[in-house]
Write a structure and sequence with these properties.
single chain, alpha+beta, 24-stranded antiparallel sheet, 6 helices
Length: about 400
């Protein structure tokens, strides 16, 4: 397990009844989080077959170990909440397979649910997933969540989530900062009430990799909604964010202090938790001030029937000589900061919106340009000098 997670997950009990060909095992796991009123307890009951030959639901297999796992929640709050659900929970099957190459695969299967009561129909077509961990600690995860459909004939409410597909891989499962990637896709989400909407082709693509500078990482994320139908004027969205040259120490300090705060909250020591949070904010801010970081944001969207884009780039060189956050000097901040902003709006779409009245005055003042059916704005801050639409502007007028 990643060291940063060891404060959240703990194994509280293990029992084994070992035989020649089969072994029964019980493992109790507690998960704690600042957002939970009490720890979430899970008991895993293992029915283990010893290799090399197994008879499984998928047929004969050869390996080291094959096990069926029966999970049971032992948290009183969660158990009570589950009993309030007006239908029988779906069966869950978990199988574990250890191969001769020392790889480990866990398969998850959640059965479908079809419940109809008092005019409400709930349909869930199940979950299928697998996690594979290799001998070198690399791992891959695949999860397929089936359709979720809710319909109430009395209120004419309906909700449809047309499945979720998740693919993920990491070079080192026990290192949260190792190179990794995760892709999520949803074909359709729709609802009729109280806010009717229909979203199609949703996707999220995230990656983490080593940066070009030592002991730092780069993060990439893209969120895309191909088509949006709702009462809002937004028809599509494509947002790409890159965060580069982030020091590993920033993330590791975050997880370490978060674990400390979490343990204080769990012991009902709120004053100590607040003190830790204050110290955490100061330490994190100082690390960010001292070290370089590059942020790139591109938002492309269709609003009021026109295509618009916002491109923002922030390059922070860092102030390594800073030892505290007291009395920051404007000059040193401006010297370490480079910003570029470009905004491009569809003129016809903008003039048909409620922002149309703002365009004329800003054009006259030189803050906006109109060219080839586009409304343009650009600004940059470099070496303490501000440029707006290609013209130098006094920086102090904004402060």
């Amino acid at each position: 397990m990643p060291p940063e997670s060891q404060g959240q997950v703990s194994v509280t009990n293990t029992q084994f009844d070992i035989g020649w060909f089969r072994t029964a095992a019980t493992i109790d796991i507690d998960f704690t989080s600042p957002g939970l009123g009490e720890s979430l307890g899970i008991r895993l009951n293992f029915d283990i077959q010893h290799g090399p030959l197994f008879l499984t639901d998928e047929g004969p297999r050869i390996g080291l170990v094959y096990a069926n796992i029966d999970p049971r929640f032992s948290s009183s709050e969660l158990t009570q909440a589950l009993t309030q659900i007006p239908f029988e929970l779906p069966s869950v099957e978990i199988a574990l397979f250890a191969g001769l190459d020392q790889s480990l695969r866990v398969d998850l299967d959640v059965a479908p649910v079809n419940h109809n009561q008092n005019g409400t129909n709930f349909i869930f077509t199940g979950i299928d997933g697998d996690l594979t961990a290799n001998a070198d600690n690399s791992a891959s995860l695949n999860i397929s969540v089936g359709n979720i459909i809710v319909h109430n004939s009395n209120s004419q409410f309906s909700f449809n989530l047309a499945g979720i597909e998740i693919e993920s891989n990491t070079a080192q499962i026990n290192d949260l900062l190792a190179p990794s990637a995760i892709f999520l896709s949803i074909p359709t989400i729709s609802s009729t009430r109280p806010f009717p909407f229909n979203l199609t082709n949703l996707s999220s693509n995230s990656r983490m990799q080593a940066s070009t500078i030592p002991q730092a990482i780069d993060i990439f994320q893209n969120i895309r909604v191909e088509n949006i139908e709702s009462e809002l004027p937004v028809q599509s969205l494509n947002w790409t964010m890159e965060l580069n040259e982030v020091q590993n120490e920033v993330f590791r300090s975050y997880y370490e202090i978060l674990g400390t705060i979490q343990s204080q909250i769990s012991s009902n020591n709120l004053n100590a938790a607040m003190a830790e949070a204050t110290a955490f904010g100061g330490d994190m801010a100082l690390l960010l001030v001292q070290n370089s970081m590059v942020l790139n944001n591109i938002i492309e969207t269709n609003v009021y029937g026109g295509d618009h884009s916002i491109d923002l780039s922030i390059d922070w060189a860092g102030i390594p000589d800073r030892v505290d956050l007291n009395e920051p000097q404007f000059g040193e901040i401006a010297a370490a900061l480079a910003i570029q902003l470009k905004i491009s709006l569809d003129q016809q779409a903008t003039m048909s919106s409620q922002f149309a009245e703002l365009v004329g005055p800003y054009v006259k003042q030189g803050y906006l340009l109109v060219e080839n059916g586009r409304i343009l704005f650009s600004a940059s801050l470099q070496n303490g000098e501000l440029t707006v639409n290609g013209e130098e502007a006094p920086f102090d007028q904004f402060f």
